[in-house]
Amino acid sequence: MPAANLPYLRAEDVDAHLNWPMMVEAIADGHRLPPARIGDLFLTRDGDTLLNRAAWVDGIGMGLKTVTVMQGNGARGLPSVQGVMVLFDDQTGTPVALIDSALVTYWKTAADSGLGARYLAPPDSRQMVIIGAGQVAGSLARVYHATFPDLERIQIWNRTAATAGDLAERLTADGIPATAATDLAQAVGQADIVASATMARDPVLRGEWVRPGTHVDLVGAFRADMREADDALLRRARIFVDSRQTTLDHIGELKIPLAAGVISRDSVLGDFHDLEAGRAGRMTRQDITLFKNGGGAHLDLMIAQAIMGAWKAKADA
Questions:
Q1: The sheet that has 153-157: what strands, in order across it?
Q2: Residues sharing a CB contact under 8 Å with residue 69, sequence separation 6 or more, in sequence order
Q3: Total number of domains in the chain
Q4: In the predicted model, what is the mean pLDDT of the chain?
Q5: Are 44 and 141 contained in the same domain?
Q6: What integer pLDDT is reported at residue 245 of this predicted model?
Q7: What Rg value do the Cα atoms of the chain yield, rounded?
Q8: Rounded to whole angstroms, how far apart are CA atoms 93 and 53?
Q9: Does the predicted TM-score (pTM) go above 0.85?
Q10: 90 with 139, same domain?
Q11: Are residues 178 and 286 in the same domain?
Q12: What is the pLDDT of residue 223?
């Protein structure tokens, strides 16, 4: 098929037909299929980056997300991150769609955490705290609100208190019970669920704050020099990941404590395939469960296919 005939999907084309339960289920469905084949390619020039992330899942198809990160784009009035996701048919390899990479990433990141919490968090969770107040923090509040109907309060904590207050106001306007927190240790100590979405290189979340039974969702760290939780929390928790392949040897959250001997590879008790199959999970109500959201091209592919399916259903209606 000529590339000019491929649909190019953006948020305005499909957002009205997407929802968080749909996206969480798309990732769960993908983990009932054979494990993905994935591969990354990074090219750099000074501070600029071209990132290519590819995945192939039998039964879904193939996907390639290509993203540029250009440090000078702010001065040009352009987004610093731009890109596109290409979908290919599983059997023929024919390109079938182009999707704005930002649209895929938005739904993928929070749905990843939503599924991890669906497996691991206490289903009757009532109190939550989110560390960070950026776009990811907002999407986390939305997916948790959609996944846990008993949530009574979502506290937002940020180093800049006004930013936390602004996000809490926007969420409240959308019917989500959000408030700004001023004391992080106190907020964590009251929470059934703690989610962290920061750019921290040094831990912002301490194990001594976390009470038994809490589910911890670590989202922010994505590089080898980044982590959000301290050693004490890793020692106390039952640890799970979305994918061993994309986390253990790549993200500082686990790579740093593994290298230091704080935990071992056996400390990671399961990934999405294990959790979906029932081979791993929370054992008791008092367990502290820790989930590392590492992302990955295979999750982009699962979400992109769900977006494409929603667009087709809209077009056929």
A1: 178-180, 153-157, 127-131, 193-196, 215-218, 289-292, 238-241, 268-270
A2: 48, 49, 51, 80, 81
A3: 2
A4: 94
A5: no
A6: 92
A7: 19
A8: 17
A9: yes
A10: no
A11: yes
A12: 86
Residue 296: CA count within 13 A, CB half-sphere: 30
Q: How far apart are CA 256 and CA 226, in angstroms?
A: 9
Q: Are residues 246 and 263 in the same domain?
A: yes
> Which CATH number covers residue 119?
3.40.50.720
pLDDT in tens, 95-126: 999 999 999 999 999 999 999 999 999 999 99
Is there a contact between 245 and 38 (Cβ–Cβ < 8 Å)? Answer: yes
Domain that includes residue 305, residue range = 3-105+298-316
What single-letter amino acid sits at 173? Answer: A
Nearest to 131 by CA among 82, 189, 194, 225: 194
What does the alpha-carbon distance between residue 290 and residue 154 come to, in Å, rounded to a whole number? 19
CATH label of the domain that carries residue 9: 3.30.1780.10
- Beta strand ranges found along 33-185 (DSSP E): 37-45, 48-57, 61-69, 81-88, 95-100, 127-131, 153-157, 178-180
For the stretch 212-265, pLDDT in tens is 999 999 999 888 899 999 999 999 999 999 999 999 999 999 999 999 999 999
Same domain, 131 and 29: no
- Strand 48-57 relative to strand 37-45, pairing: antiparallel
**287 and 309 assigned to the same domain:** no
Residue 244 and residue 281 in one domain: yes
- State the DSSP H helix or E strand holding residue 289, giving kind and residue range, or none if neither: strand 289-292
The CA angle 274-104-29, to the nearest 5 degrees, is 30
Tell me: do 64 and 176 sit in the same domain. no
As given in the structure block, the two tokens for residue 79 are 């987004």
Given strand 8-9, what is the order of strands in its sheet? 8-9, 95-100, 81-88, 61-69, 48-57, 37-45
Which tokens belong to 170? 């926007």
